[in-house]
Structure formats: structure tokens, C-alpha cells
């Protein structure tokens, strides 16, 4: 009996999920109530409520108190690399190069921290060596979508505005250029994974939502590492686009 019940529940979840993907339930549409879902799929109301909870956990719907469940209207933001890095030469923030809905900085802290293994390897220093870290959190449509921690050698940037929250016109890359270390090339490595508990909290992620972890390393004209940035992106909020010339 339980197996038959579970099968009906799984069929209900899959059917509703496919209807959302096919546009039968469009972004912003109100979803059928648990009672309606129960009647359609011959399951009890409690099971139908758990089907809605699963769709919510998977990121397909949101629930508004005393209103009901609705198909999410959030559109992914296109992040294009390496084109987005060209904007710093124009004195604009790198985040402003993304298309679609623009990100907004909601948290920023600057301080000294010991280098982790990946950061130390990029800078060719010992793990635990002191680094200047700029830690940011970004949102779109009032929803946290990205964490970004950037690391710099203290002896390189301590006399610049990089150690302050306001780096001035052109941002960090303009300040690096002023001291003779303008970024000349970049590398990015990325992988998909499940978020750490702190990341889930900071990005307010529904259960089961993966993240995209990106490590970007910037090198100056002498091929010296001048910045390492470790980013964590809500995978449901971004589309990544990469360009290459042969």
C-alpha cells in the first residue's frame, strides 16, 4: 500500500514539475492547492502538501503565507567570461557586465586572514600566510545569489585603497594598475557541488539547491598572481557563458 502511495506521490511531483518546465504553469502563476492536487492524483491532502513542499525545495515554486504557492518568476543572470572583465578598463564594476538583472552589493568586509591551500598555491606562498581579503555578498531582486572572497598580498596592496571598503573609481583593478600590477590575463576553474551549511544560510538556498564554485586567478603583465577570487553562485540564478578564440 505504501509503495502504491509513494508511486502516486512521485508521479504527481514529476507531472507538476514538467508542467512548470513546459509553461503550462507560467512564471508567477498560482499553483493548484493541495486539495486540487490530491483529487487529481488520488492522494490525500497531506501527501499533496508534501509534493508542493518538494517542488518548493527543488526551487520550482515559492509559497506566500496565507496566499498559496506560485511558480518562481526569477530569471537566471547571464555571466559571460572573459568579456565581463573588459569593463574595468572603462572604470565600471565587473559585476555590471552581467546581462539581465544586475547584482547589488549587500555585504562587504575587508580584513586580514590566513591563506588557504588554493590561495597559497596561486600566490606561491606558504599556507597560513597573511592575506588581505575582501568578502562580498551580492543579491538580485532582493535575493542573495553570490558570495565572492578576493585575496591580495599585503605587501602589494597595503598602501592602496584596496584595504578599504570603498576602492574608488574603477575599483580594485584600477588600483592595481596604479601600482604597476594591472591584470593582463585571467584563469577560471569551476565546479558544481552542494553548498556548505554557511553558504546555504548566506545565500538563503532552498534545500537541494546546488552551487557553482568558481576560482578566478588574475595575473599581471609579468605573469605574477595579483588576485585570487573564490566565488560561490546559486546555480539556479546564473547561466555561464565562455568565449574562446582559436
TrEMBL record:
Keyword Nucleotide-binding appears in the UniProt entry: no
Coiled-coil annotation: which residues? none
Biological process (GO), any one: negative regulation of DNA-templated transcription
Q: Which SMART domains match?
A: HTH_GNTR (SM00345), UTRA (SM00866)
Which InterPro entries does UniProt cross-reference here?
Bact_HTH_transcr_reg, Chorismate_lyase_/UTRA_dom_sf, Tscrpt_reg_HTH_GntR, UTRA, WH-like_DNA-bd_sf, WH_DNA-bd_sf
* Keywords assigned by UniProt, alphabetized: DNA-binding, Transcription, Transcription regulation
Output one GO MF annotation.
Answer: DNA-binding transcription factor activity
HTH gntR-type domain: residues covered: 6-74
Respond yes or no to whether keyword Metal-binding is given for this record. no
- Xref: PROSITE patterns: HTH_GNTR
Query: What Pfam families does this protein map onto?
Result: GntR, UTRA
Superkingdom is: Bacteria
**Alphabetical list of SUPFAM superfamilies matching this protein:** Chorismate lyase-like, Winged helix' DNA-binding domain
Family annotation (PANTHER family): GNTR-FAMILY TRANSCRIPTIONAL REGULATOR, MANNOSYL-D-GLYCERATE TRANSPORT/METABOLISM SYSTEM REPRESSOR MNGR-RELATED
What name is this protein filed under? GntR family transcriptional regulator
Amino acid at each position: 500500500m505504501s509503495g502504491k502511495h509513494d508511486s502516486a506521490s512521485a508521479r504527481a511531483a514529476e507531472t507538476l514539475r514538467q508542467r512548470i518546465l513546459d509553461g503550462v504553469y507560467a512564471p508567477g502563476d498560482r499553483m493548484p492547492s493541495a486539495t486540487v492536487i490530491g483529487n487529481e492524483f488520488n492522494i490525500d491532502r497531506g501527501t499533496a502538501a508534501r509534493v508542493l513542499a518538494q517542488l518548493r525545495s527543488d526551487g520550482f515554486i515559492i509559497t506566500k503565507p496565507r496566499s498559496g504557492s506560485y511558480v518562481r518568476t526569477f530569471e537566471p543572470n547571464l555571466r559571460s567570461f572573459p568579456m565581463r572583465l573588459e569593463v574595468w578598463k572603462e572604470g565600471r564594476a565587473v559585476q555590471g557586465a552581467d546581462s539581465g538583472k544586475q547584482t547589488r552589493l549587500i555585504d562587504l568586509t575587508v580584513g586580514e586572514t590566513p591563506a588557504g591551500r588554493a590561495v597559497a598555491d596561486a600566490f606561491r606562498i606558504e599556507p597560513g600566510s597573511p592575506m588581505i581579503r575582501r568578502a562580498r555578498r551580492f543579491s538580485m531582486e532582493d535575493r542573495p545569489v553570490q558570495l565572492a572572497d578576493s585575496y591580495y598580498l599585503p605587501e602589494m596592496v597595503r598602501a592602496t585603497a584596496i584595504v578599504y571598503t570603498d576602492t574608488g573609481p574603477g575599483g580594485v583593478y584600477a588600483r592595481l594598475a596604479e601600482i604597476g600590477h594591472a591584470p593582463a590575463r585571467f584563469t577560471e576553474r569551476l565546479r558544481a557541488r552542494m553548498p556548505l551549511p554557511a553558504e546555504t544560510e548566506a545565500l538563503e538556498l532552498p534545500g537541494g539547491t546546488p552551487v557553482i564554485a568558481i576560482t578566478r586567478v588574475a595575473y599581471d603583465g609579468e605573469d605574477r598572481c595579483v588576485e585570487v577570487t573564490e566565488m560561490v553562485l546559486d546555480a539556479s540564478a546564473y547561466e555561464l557563458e565562455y568565449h574562446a578564440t582559436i
